Amino acid sequence: MKFRLISKKLRDALYLGLGWSLVLPMPVWSAPPFLPTAAPLANSTTTTVLPNLMLLLDTSGSMGWNFLPDWAGNSGGNKGKYCRNVDISYPSSVYNMDCTDQPLQQSPDFNGVYYNPAITYKPPVKYDGNSYGNITSWTAVSDDAFIGTTTSNLTTDTPDVQWCTDSTYTDCLVSGNYILPNIVNFKSYTTMNVTTASGIANVVTGTPGNLTVTAKAIGPHYYSMSVGEYCDSDVLTNCQYAQTATFSYPAKLRWCNSDVNASALTPAANSCQKVNMGSFVYPRYPTRYFARVANGVQPKQATASINVSMSGCSSSKQAGVTAVKVGTTTITSGSTSNFNSNNGPGLASAIANLNTGSSGYTISANGSVITVTAPISAGNPGALSLVKSTANSCTFSTGPANFSGYVAPVAENDTYYGSMTRTDIVSTNNSYPKADGRTDCTGATCTYAQEMTNFANWWTYYQTRMQTMKTSLSLAFSAYWSRL
Prior knowledge:
There is one protein chain. The longest helix is centred in the N-terminal third of the chain and has 16 residues, at 8-23. Residues 1-11 and 13-29 have low confidence and may be disordered. The protein folds into 3 domains: 65-220 and 417-483, no CATH class; 227-285, no CATH class; 303-388. Helix content is 12%, strand content 23%. It has 5 helices and 27 strands. It has helices spanning 8-23, 259-263, 344-352, 448-461, 465-477, and strands at 83-84, 95-97, 141-142, 151-152, 159-164, 172-175, 182-184, 187-189, 191-196, 200-207, 210-217, 221-225, 229-231, 239-240, 249-251, 254-256, 272-273, 282-284, 290-294, 303-307, 321-326, 329-330, 362-366, 369-373, 384-388, 413-416, 420-424. The strands form 10 sheets. A 5-stranded mixed beta sheet has the order 9-5-6-10-11, with no helix packed on it. It has a 3-stranded antiparallel beta sheet with strand order 14-13-15, with no helix packed on it. By secondary structure, it is an alpha+beta fold. A hairpin with an 8-residue loop joins strand 3 (141-142) and strand 4.
């Protein structure tokens, strides 16, 4: 191979030309206009194929999720585990429970896919340009209009969570403000019941120190966050509770760098911000932080005990109990069998099995000792006594025994900043807030029918990420169907 040397002048000229080509603007050539082809590539002829439109749509499993972003639901790890746990020891409640179907996940302020009453949920458009149509009948709504394999009665089947005193699920509450699980009226509502919203339920609102329990109709619903803090910039780092000219940026939700700061009345400087990223993964939302004005005192129930150890029993000297009394009031119905042997534990067990009805008293047995526990409302009641079945019988103690140990309840007093308010869409209410974006509502407010139709549209057309994408794409391209 031979190399030919060039002169220094020619080399300099080449360098200069290259430099100017990088500095001077390139000439602009106008591309001829074109129309996308109406035929797929597979059906095209061998002639020149016109440009087409390529659409890429994620079909992974996460597109079937009903929450957005990933942190809004249980998408792995600790994501979506931000809800109040059953450890309700104030002021350090634990916030690490899965939020599925709980107030956070059923709030559009937290979950970007959940029903938002400020949006008009328009039906998608079919390939022929016709609309899928509004859902005006709500008892058999398709769970996915694009697949259509299952349906739900939205008036009775909307997922919900109740909190109960035990697993019998007979004494339960629904969160009207996000304060459950909790102690309400001195009873612990810490057993979760995953259910659906229908009929009449006891809905608790207010704060732990100022609660109201109301029997209300429930159904399809959503939770709205009210503003708890105001910040001096839209990054939501430096905030306070009072709104001023300087602190004018509302903060419903912030993300903190520790669980402690997320729950603190006053988080450490620069410990919270607007965006979930890096170490800022602990949500700070209304009802999670509050000011303790006064500690509450948990009540203690009064008790009284009698030892029914028996003596002198035989076939001719038998004994049992016909009644248990507190003062002059009989708290049991029925009676025990008569015992013909010195069986104190057996008698105690039989007394504990007597029916106390609606008196509020409970009876327990431990060996030969019975213990009667009074309801909170009774305080320290009159003396406990037993009534023997026969006077001429073997012997055991019948009392009296005084009640003791009662501690009066004192409600805690907390100041909450912001709230999470539940709204149920039920036929007994014909007026719902109308946002500017609700073009479907013709009056000053939205009627029950309008709100239910909007909710049903969301349910069948937008409930998951994939449903939202399919509906949105059909609407986005609907103006071009005739041109494609």
